[in-house]
Structure formats: C-alpha cells, structure tokens
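thread: overnight batch results

M.L. [08:02]
morning all. the overnight job finished for the chain we discussed friday. pasting input first so we're all looking at the same thing
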Amino acid sequence: DHKDIQGNLYYVRYPLAGTKEFITVATTRPETILGDTAVAVNPKDKRFKGVVGKKAILPAVNREIPVIIDEAVDPEFGTGAVKITPAHDPVDFEVAQRHDLPLVNILNPDVTMNENAGKYAGLDRYKCREAIVADLKKDGLLVKIEPYGHSVGHCMRCQTVIEPTASRQWFIKTEPLAKPAIDAVTSGRINIIPERFTKVYLNWLENIRDWCISRQLWWGHRIPVWYCGKCGELTVSVDDVKKCAHCGSAKIEQDPDVLDTWFSSALWTHSTLGWPDDTEDLRYFYPTTVMETGYDILFFWVARMIMMGLEDVGDVPFSTVYLHGLLRDEKGEKMSKVRGNVLDPLDTMDKYGTDALRFALSTDVSPGNDINLTAARLEAGRNFANKLWNAARFVVRGIETEDIALNIKREGLGVEERWILSRLSRTNASVVKLMESFQFGEALRQLYDFIWGEFCDWYIEFAKIRLGDKDASPVPVLVYVLEASLRLLHPFMPFVTEELWQNLKKRLPADWQKTESIMIAAYPEADEKAVDAEAERVMAAVIEIIHAIRNARAEHKVESNKWIEARVFAGELNPVIIPHAPAIQSLARAKPVSFGEGRGEAQPSENVLALVLESSEVIIPMESMVDLKAERKRLEGEIAQSQAQIASLAGRLKDKAFLAKAPEAVVAKERDKLAERKGKLERLKEQIARF
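M.L. [08:03]
and the structure it wrote out:
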C-alpha cells in the first residue's frame, strides 16, 4: 500500500570535481546518497547546461559520479537536479539502464547498511539517515531541510516502510505475448464488461514490461531450474532433474525461488483441464464463455490468462470478461484487517442469514462499480426473506390440492388476477434481459419491487378478501405467481427459495413432483400473452386511491381501527373501479366509499380534505377522521414546536463562532435539519387551514 506521509526534503551540495562549484540536489532519503551513481538533470533545463558531462563528488564516500541528462527528471522537483540511486529506486534503475550506470546496493535484507556504506555499515537505515545528515551539516554540504509530503510504499500486513532494492530475478519477456492478447480484444473475440475497462486493459498491454516471475517465499511452485555445481550450466525441465543436462554431474541444486502466484493462476483456464495433454475436458470446456472477477486484477490475472491461453492452447480462454467492483465498508473505505473494518462473513451470515448477505451484495451491484456493505442492506435482505417466507406460508395454507393446475386458464379471470399475471410477465421479461446484459443489481431490484411491492403488498391483500369465493378463487394464481417468483429469485437467494419451493411442491399434484430441486428447474420464460395493459391501468387507479386514503389517515394520525368516509370521482374509470369498492373499503378502512360522476368536483372546502390524484379525485370529510377541535389543538402545538426549532437552528447557523469551528459535515447537517423543519411547518399550516 502507498500512504501519504509527512517527511522532509533534504537539499545537499555535491562538489563538482576540479572546481569550487557545487550542484545541489534534493532527496527524501539522504542515506541512499551512499548508493548514488549519477546526478541527472532534464535536457531542456538550461540552468545546468554548464555542468552536464562533469563529475560530481559523492558526499560522505568521495566517489566521483557523472552529471547526465535524462527526460525522466522533473525540472520542478527540488532544484531540478536529482540523485540517481539505481539499486534502490525503480525510476533510477531505468535511468541507469539507459545510461549504462553501475548499481551499488547499500542495504542488507534486514534494512541495515551493508559493506558498501563504508563507515555507516551495520547501522539501521534511519540511524544511518541521522548520521549522514549530521555529517553533511558538519561538512557544510547540507543547504536546508524542508517539510515535504509524499507517497511511500508500506507492507500491507505489518505497515513497515518498503525499501526498493535491485536483485537477480527470473523474468518472462511479455511483449510477444501481449500483441496477440491486444488483438483478441480489439478484434472482438473477447468482450470486457464494463466497456470502459477495455481502455485500461489495452493501456496496460501496450505499455507492458517484462514480468518478474520469481519470488522469495517459503511456499509455492519451485522455479524449474537446476544449477550444476560442476560445470556451472543451467538445466531447465518440467520433470524433476537428477543430473546436469550438460555434463551429467549429479551435483545439482534447484533454484530456491518459487513462481509468482499469478503465473500459476494464469494457467488456470487450461491446466485444470489436463493441459498440456489433449484431454476430452480441454476440448469440451476450453474456451469457456464468461470469466467473472474483480476489476482490480484485470491485469494481474485476466490479461495474463489471455496471454497464456493464446500461447499454450492457441485460442482465447473465454469470450466475455465481467468485472465486478470492490467490497467496501459503510464509509466507502476498502476493507482490511489493518483498518479493522472487515466483516466476518460467517458471523454476518449467522446474524442476518446467508440469503440476506447475498441480497446485500447483489442489490447495488453493477459492472465495475464498488459496493458499500452496510447494516441497512443486510437488514433489508433479512426483512425481504422474512416477507417472502410469510407470503409463501399464507399461499400454502390456502391450497386445496385438487383445485390447483399447472397452467392458468385466463378466461374468466378477475382484473386483479389479470393484473398480477401481467406484471409477472413484464418483470420476468425485464429480469431475463437484465441478467443477459450482466445488470444483476437492477434485476434483483426489479424482482424485489415486484415480489414485495406488488405481489405481497397488493395482490395477496386483494386475494384475502376473496379467499372464500369458490367461483373466483385467487388460489391458483397465488400459487402460480409464487412458484414463478421463487424460480426467478433463486439465483440471488438460493436457500430460502429452495426451502419454500420444496414446501410448495409437497402440496401440489403429482406432475409437480417431477423436478427434484428448484436448482434444476427451468428458469421462467415471460408469457407475452399475459400482458394486459387495461388490467394494469385499472389496478393502478385502484391502488392509487387506496394509497392516498392510507396516507391521509397516517398524516392525520387516524387510529387503525377507525373507519372513515370517502367519495371517489374517477370519471370514465368509474365503471371499472366501482366493482373494486369492497377492496378499497377493506384495505383503506374507508366505509362507506361512494362514487361521484365526472372529475374536477373534489374542491377543497372547510372541514373537507380533497385529494387530487393522477387517475381520480377523492374527498374525505375531516370529521370522519378526527375530532376537529382536538386536531386543531394538536396542530397548533406542533406548529409552535416547529417554529421554536426553526428559530434555534437559524440562530445557530447565524453564529459565526459555530460556523468557524464546526466541521463542514456538521454545518451541512444543521442546514438540512432547518430545511426539513421548514417543510414540516408548511405542511402543518396546510393541514390547519382545512379546519
């Protein structure tokens, strides 16, 4: 991990050989002066035109090093002249390669100074820094020290500052491998989702460097190279080697390093199928269709699988790469053990349920975008599973086996049934389309809205009113919609859907028993014939009326067991809405519900609440909802309370001391509170004006 830290920038004079002049460089690591092999300036920087090609004397060790020019130097950094330490800086290493500079390694593996550090040998790197700075100051070579913020590499596990060091490693020349991998994507043989990562992929491969594949670790695949102690030659072999391939000596030793984990991972697409043998599995399963992984390893894994697949097998390993985002905490920060913000999945599943965790991870997922995992999402998943469980229990209780058929006959169905079947068909079609385009989060959201918001909240409630109606029983449609919904939802929440599907299947006729598990049941196909725009129009109007009356009751705090009066004006929709009066009465607790001719008759007046809706208008006598005197008194009290809160918040936001000291987030929160209180006050004034 790279972290921004506050350090120092040390300005150091390097004497120019044979003169009394100096060239001043700036560095954040003065201890690495001991490993310098050059001073570099930008070729366009005219300030140093007279010193390029001269020799500088390296402080502390008095070694001569050249002053060179290189495009990598930033003229704006420090003095414009930089020290080149090839053994301990990746950029400097590349400069050294271009200018044929030697490498001087000054660090031991334990980051103490080695024999190349002269009198500083054996010192810890930071103790060496202190000693070098003291000596530079004593010799008059330290110009100044400035505070300087910069990014420094740290170990992800122990957070120790990492010191780059040049070492001998094994590499793969990747440019010949990268060209076919680039062509595989630009030609369309491989499609990357989301598309914006195609540019990232191509940028990496077009600027690829040789791949270091050796690692100094205790565990891994050993490098398949043996060194001969007799002739000094190398033997490379897939099989274990007993003797040198060059001189036949048995005095051989295998390289102690192991392969980079991404090397063996890059072979995964074909090594798992028996490659290099021409196996039946390899012929059948290679290439596969979709490769799904995180965008953070697009280069480390995906690009390398493509390169290796093309090189080893001669074909792309997959046709589609689907990239998901990273999982973050509630604040959007990356989860890590160091930060202490990691959620243990086992504990989370134990608390909320496995399906709830899957729901939380899926509802907001979209290709390539990160996900913030919050307790609210987990609770929403648990609540959804509970809602589904209760709905299924209600449906199963109402089943009479002999009356249930696999196929619903639409002739003679009521408007409610035609409506829910139409909504099921539309949802089914949309979900399939979304899943085929990898929009899994939106697919789950639409299923959630349909199952909870339409099937559970509305159709089941409509069905309860008519459960005893043998001529128009809603049970077959309840079963049909529940069963299809469980199959639609199964990929997202497999455990609860399997359990409920098995319970449902036990109570159905024999032809339902043929499929052992919902996992192997066919995914639902949308029935286009079930789409019924008229039924949707009628039920949208009915639901809107019920919803509006319920909101009015809640706004005026009407007790749940109290019945109120309502008069509906639906114009041309009256004939199709009037048959639903019993449902409106039952679900809105409005009795009587009467219907007036035309629209535009719902005029607000004293003691009357007029609700103007999209498809109708509703008038509710206030006296049917509340005690008018008591309600007015309650509203006056709430108005006074709101006015006091507004005055307090406004005063705080005018306080210069508060505005100066409080964090921006706190000030913003107070402003939001003020806006919310003002909105509430306006609503209260509108309510009291009706009396």
